[in-house]
Structure formats: structure tokens, C-alpha cells
Amino acid sequence: GAKWTYSGQDGQQYWSKHYPYCGGPFQSPIDIESELLRFDPTLGPIEVQNYDLSPDEQLTLGNNGHSVQLSLPGKMYISSLPRRYTAAQLHLHWGSSSKPAGSEHLVNSRQYAAELHVVHFNSDKYPNMSMAVDKSDGLAVLGVLIEVGEFNPAFEQFLKFINGVKYRDQKVQIPGFNIRGLLPPRLDEYYRYDGSLTTPPCYPSVLWTLFRNPVTISRKQFVALATSLYSSHAQDSTPLPLNSNFRKPQAVDSRVVLVSFKE
Ligand SMILES: NS(=O)(=O)c1c(F)c(F)c(S(=O)(=O)CCO)c(N[C@H]2CCCc3ccccc32)c1F
Ligand SMILES: [Zn+2]
After folding, report:
1. What is the β-pairing status of strands 77-78 and 85-94?
2. Distance 140 CA to ligand 1 centre (A)
3. Residue-wise pLDDT tens digits, 164-209
4. I need a surface site. Which of 67, 74, 167, 245 has the fewest CB within 10 A?
């Protein structure tokens, strides 16, 4: 489709010109404010299967010009939702080294340094991501807030390869590792709401699960993420740094955010 960026002449306030859903309802991300929350006792712990990948398994780490993404094997899935949601890829959103706040979701207007998204599609109903991406029950994304603190060995399993994907469309094969290690310890505390892709085409097709507890990466790890990548191709004369790749919070309208925890 048409090119889009996070700022400038093709920036997020113009996305709806070519991608009408971006100007529609049920958009993500949102600012998760306390007064929107409703405790839902039926929200049990998130259960994931086959996230512990063997190092014999090869994953493709890539720079798609909008984020750094890691392809995930179809044996990984979420088993605690009414339908099986099979993993497709994970990617991140982050700020810049000068402005280290780059999460997409905010919690009571607090923006975290970065955010991890693990994208899954409803494989009970659809054969692949492409068929699921624009269906209202098509996708489920697990979101993890990231703050700067302790070094994170799980994130290092792919961050250590980031210099191999500096430029748009570069890809490298990396050994599998335990993807569960990227998630916070507690999968029973999360926010839940109906939303959308946070990039064009912004389809309102995502069941969002944002874990309550952030994880940490070290400042060195954050700086590597925020300063290593370019959205331009290697041969382009003007290298465009890839950072601050987060969409601003969208209107909540009459949506309620469910929470799996009481206080
Ligand atoms: N925040 S978000 O809404 O979760 C989100 C992103 F922010 C994001 F950048 C991506 S992208 O890296 O593919 C770059 C542009 O779409 C995705 N990809 C999804 C949706 C698009 C189609 C597709 C096909 C296969 C695998 C994943 C995806 C995305 F879902
Ligand atoms: Zn995302």
C-alpha cells in the first residue's frame, strides 16, 4: 500500500487519507485510565503453548522499515482464549535516545520506554494472518510494557543480532529461544479491550491484552534498540533513523477496559 510514517508529511495524522479505518472507531493504542477500568472475574490467566523454542529452531529477525520484527512458528499459540490464536510475529515500539518514552499504550497517562507486541491470529477460523487481519475476531495481540532498568537476558537473545538488520528489508536467521521469557512473570494480571492494529491499515480486528506489569531492559539495551535501526534501505543516500515508532493514544469513546485483577 501507500507509504506511511510516524511523523512528517506521511505521518499518523494523515494515515486516514489512504487507510480509512485509521480514522474510524475502535482504534489502538489508548491511554488506560483508572476510571475506564472494570474488574472482570471471568478473565483468567493467559496461557501460552510452545513458546519455549529450541536453539535448533531458526527464526527470521527482520527490519520492515516500521519496526524490528521476529517471525514466530505456527506451533506457538494462546490456549486460554475461546478460540486458538496462533502466533505470527513479534515486534516492538520505542522512543529515541533523546526522548526514551515510546510505548504505545499509556497507563494513567504514563508512557513507558518501549512496548513489545506478540501478534496472533484466530487459527480456529482463518487459515493465515492475511485472511484474519481484517476480521473483527481475527487477531489477538499480547502487549508488554518495557521500562529501563535491569539487563534482560531474554531480550538480549534477539537484540544481540540487531546490527544485522540495520536497514529496511534486511533479515537474519537467529536461533530460537524461550519467547515466554519476554513476557512478565505474572500472566494473570492484564488489561483487556477491543481495538485495532496500531499501524495502517488500522483494522479494528484486535483483541488486546496488555500485561499490568512492565519488564525491564538495560539502558544499553534500550540505546541499541533506539539507535541501531534505519527505516531506509542500505543503499539510500539519506539514512532515516527508525525510532519513535509509536502511534499516539486514540479516542476510547464508549469502550470499557476490563481488568483481570482487583487492586
Ligand atoms: N501494533 S500492531 O498492530 O500489533 C502491528 C504493528 F505495529 C506493526 F508494525 C506490524 S508490522 O511489523 O507488520 C509493520 C506494518 O504492519 C504489525 N503487523 C501485523 C499486521 C499487518 C499484517 C501482518 C501480517 C503478518 C504478521 C503481522 C502482521 C502489527 F500487527
Ligand atoms: Zn505493535
Report:
1. antiparallel
2. 12
3. 999 999 999 999 999 999 999 999 999 999 999 999 999 999 999 9
4. 74
ipTM for the predicted complex:
0.98
- For the record, the C-alpha cell of 246 comes out as 509509536
Is ligand 1 within 6 A of the CB of residue 48? Answer: no
Q: Tell which one of 15, 103, 199 to mutate to probe ligand 1, the residue whose CB is within 8 A of the most ligand atoms.
A: 199
Residue 210, C-alpha cell as written in the block: 496488555
- Please write the tens of the pLDDT for every residue from 73-128: 999 999 999 999 999 999 999 999 999 999 999 999 999 999 999 999 999 999 99
Question: Cell numbers at residue 51, please?
Answer: 513458546
**3-class DSSP state for residue 122?**
strand
In sequence order, which residues have a C-beta less than 8 Å from that of residue 29 and are 6 or more positions away? 104, 105, 106, 195, 198, 246, 247, 249, 250
